[in-house]
Structures are given as C-alpha cells and as structure tokens.
Amino acid sequence: MKISxxxxxxxxxxxxxxxxxxxxxxxxxxxxxxxxxxxxxTHTSGLGTHNGVLNGGxxxxxxxxxxxxxxxxxxxxxxxxxxxxxxxxxxRADDDRLFNYGAWVGLAHDSYGDLRLGRQYTVxxxxxxxxxxxxxxxxxxGATFKAxxxxxxxxxxxxxxxxxxxxxxxxxxxxxxxxxxxxxTAANNRALSMxxxxxxxxxLAVATWDQLRLAxxxxxxxxxxQALQLGASYDFEVVKVTLGWSRQRNGYVxxxxxxxxxxxxxxxxxxxxxxGTVNAWLLxxxxxxxxxxxxxxxxxxxxxxxxxxGSTARxxxxxxxxxxxxxxxxxxxxxxxxxxxxxxxxxxxxxxHSHTSRFGTGISHRF
Length: 367
What we know:
Low-confidence stretches: 1-26
Structural class: mainly beta
Shape: globular
Distance between the termini: 31 Å
Number of helices: 3
Strand content: over 45%
Strand order of the largest sheet: 1-3-4-6-7-8-9-10-11-12-13-14-15-16-17-18
Radius of gyration: 21 Å
C-alpha cells in the first residue's frame, strides 16, 4: 500500500472521534453513536421471570455517519447512515440490513426546506416521539402510541418545510414500506405520513396523521390502517409536562404491532385489523433533581373490540418511574421500574389479561 494512502486512512480515522472530518472546503463527515446496556429483571404473569443484560434501557444502542456539503446559493447536500446493534451480543439489531435505522440522502435550503430520500423515520414518528419523556426499553411512549414507536420505512421520500415563527410541517410517502420489492407499485405496502409542529421556547405542540395502504389486506380487513396523534409539552423549568392523545384504527400503521393471530403482517390482533379502534392517552412529567431528573410517565390504551370468545378487550395501562444521573455531558446512569396491565412485551393487548413488570438499571454513553 502506498504511503500516501496509509496517511490518508490514518488521518481519516484519527479525526472521527473529534466529530468531523474536513479537507479544506470539502464535505464534513461525523461519526456518532450511543452504547447503552444495563441489567434488568422482567416478570410476566403466566410466563415467569427473565433476568439478564438489557440492550438500550434508556435509548437504543446505535452508530452512524452523517454529513453535509455546502453546494452554493444556500443549498446543501446531506446524508445519514445509521445502524442499531445489541451491545450484549455485538450483533446488529436487524441481521438483514447494515443500516437498518437510516440510510438517506437529500438536499436542504433554509428558504425551501429539507428533502430526504431513502430509509428513514416517518414524519408522524419524528414529530410524535418528540413528546416522549421516558423512553425505557419497550415501556416508552411507543408501547401504546405505536405510530411513534421506533420503526423506519424503506423507499421513503420525506419533505420538511422551513421553520416559520416556530411552525414546521412535514409530509412523506413510502413506495414500498417494508421492502416487498415487487415491480408493480400497488403490489407493495405504501405509507403516507404528514404532520405539523410548533416549537417556541418551552412549548412544543404536534399533530400527525398516518395511513398505510396495504398491497394484500388481511382477511376481513376493516379498512386502511391509520393513526392520528395530538400532543403538547411545556417546560416550566421546575417540571416538564407532556400530554398526548392518539386514535389508531384497522391495525398499526408502522407494521410494528406483532402478529398474534397469524394474519401475515404485523398489524396487531385480528380484531384490531378487522375494524377495531384504539384510543390512547399519555401523561408524563420530568423533574430536575441534582445532576439528573426523576421521570414519571403513564399511558392508557382503550380498545373497542371483542375477542373471538366474546369477551371484551380490556384497557392496557403502562406506568413507569425512573431516574437519570448525568456523570458527564456524554455519560448517564439510569434506573427505572415499569408496570403494565393487560399487556405483554410481545402483544400490546393480551386476551389472557397478563401483567408485566420490569426493573432495570444501566449506563448510556454517547459519542
């Protein structure tokens, strides 16, 4: 290998930890990520107790590359490549994709907005998830507000408007959300997502709407899965409060609800996909204490259907209480407890009326 080539590689690797690599007026590239691991005990009635290392108790473990280049006249080109992994095993979060969390490229201008093409989060997920205060593993906002869960769509085009006096809007469309890769567009699952956000000082308010257009609807499908989300948060300095409401119907729009009745798609329970509706509420509070914060969050999901045996589906409730302590700007210790009724980690609505509890503690480091 030529000496010049070796020098270039060494220089490139050496600058990554500093957050940016640049050559003159060339593009900047940033290596970033999170490593989060802990220990937890999880008990589900009827199934028993599981003890072990917890991947991403506070936030998902991931690494990524992102960068931008000024291409003149106020325009810039941007990209992001992001991959999730499990620090307890070293495996990728999704064995089928190297950059499962994100792989997009786009153009942006302060006056015209931001256009992104590739695998990424939906507008509904991006705006809705901004309300979350407690993202504890599998017990955060996304447990009941599934349109704000941690999911991504492939073949997605997102456009975000410029921010004007605190307001911003976004719209996105996926031509093949879950990678069916059929030649005919209508043979793939398509998704539409749009939202409106207002953020000014301590106030954040969002409204989103998502719809999934199934290529092959499940037997008896009640209609297109869709989700409406409304919410707001306000930081009073002594406490930050968040409120949210969601209406989900005909199955989960993110294809992230499991498939307990073998419908062939992750729409959730058959009764939900066949015309059911879920109304969900969220209430959270974060109180600064010392170098950290005490965080409490409660959510309720109310289904309107009956199970095959004629019994009425019961409300699912989830409450969590935790504490985060900042050892440094990049390293956080945490501990939390969570309890859910009529809910398991695999199925959001359990006809067996299971109860799930989890206690965990860990460390999260950002780089």
